[in-house]
């Protein structure tokens, strides 16, 4: 391979690394759940994602039972380029009587649902 070919290969590799796909998938970093005796919960969800603007940003998350039943969805309407990680809340999520563990999955506008699941054991207050 001659010098020009090597330089061209390096330039192509550098351009590929800076392509919007480099932001990857949104990741749920932490979840705090507060659940009452009626099995209604509030979830504070912290997400990280290398938001790049309107073309690639974390745009929501879902809460599921371990059997895959959707319990709740929170949409995120805009990029959080300068606010990473960030925490948002969803309230009034009703948890079925047979469920004590849920999983959450983040989404981004380019990749859709993340491959990573955040698993959370719920605790319900007595009163």
Overview in brief:
The protein is mainly beta and 127 residues long. It is 12% helix and 43% strand. The protein has a single domain (24-121), classed as Immunoglobulin-like (Sandwich).
Fold and architecture overview:
This protein has one helix at residues 3-17; strands at 27-35, 40-48, 58-65, 70-75, 86-94, 101-108, 112-113, 118-121. With 127 residues, it is mainly β. It has one domain: Sandwich (Immunoglobulin-like). Strands 3, 4, 6, 7 and 8 form a 5-stranded antiparallel beta sheet that branches. A hairpin with a 4-residue loop joins strand 1 and strand 2. The longest helix has 15 residues, at 3-17. The protein is elongated and about 45 Å long. Mean pLDDT is 83; it is low at 3-22.
What descriptive keywords fit this protein?
127 residues; mainly beta; 1 helix; disordered N terminus; three-stranded antiparallel sheet
**SSE string, helices as H and strands as E:** HEEEEEEEE
CATH architecture: Sandwich
User: Helix share of residues?
Assistant: 10-25%
The number of distinct β-strands equals: 8
Domain module tally: 1
**CATH superfamily label:** Immunoglobulins
Please indicate the percent range of residues in DSSP E strands (runs of 2 or more).
35-45%
Number of helices: 1
Note the main sheet: 5 strands, antiparallel
CATH topology annotation: Immunoglobulin-like
Mean of all residue-level pLDDT scores: 83
Radius of gyration from CA coordinates: 19 Å
């Amino acid at each position: 391979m001659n010098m020009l070919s090597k330089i061209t290969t390096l330039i192509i590799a550098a351009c590929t690394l800076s392509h919007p796909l480099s932001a990857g998938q949104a990741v749920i970093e932490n979840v705090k759940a507060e659940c009452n005796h009626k099995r209604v919960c509030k979830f504070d969800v912290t997400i990280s994602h290398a938001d790049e603007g309107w073309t690639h940003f974390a745009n929501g998350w879902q809460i599921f039972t371990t059997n895959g039943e959707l319990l709740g969805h929170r949409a995120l309407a805009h990029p959080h380029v300068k606010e990473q990680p960030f925490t948002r809340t969803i309230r009034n999520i009703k948890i079925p009587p047979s469920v004590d563990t849920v999983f959450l999955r983040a989404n981004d506008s380019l990749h859709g649902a993340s491959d990573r699941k955040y698993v959370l054991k719920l605790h319900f207050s007595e009163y």
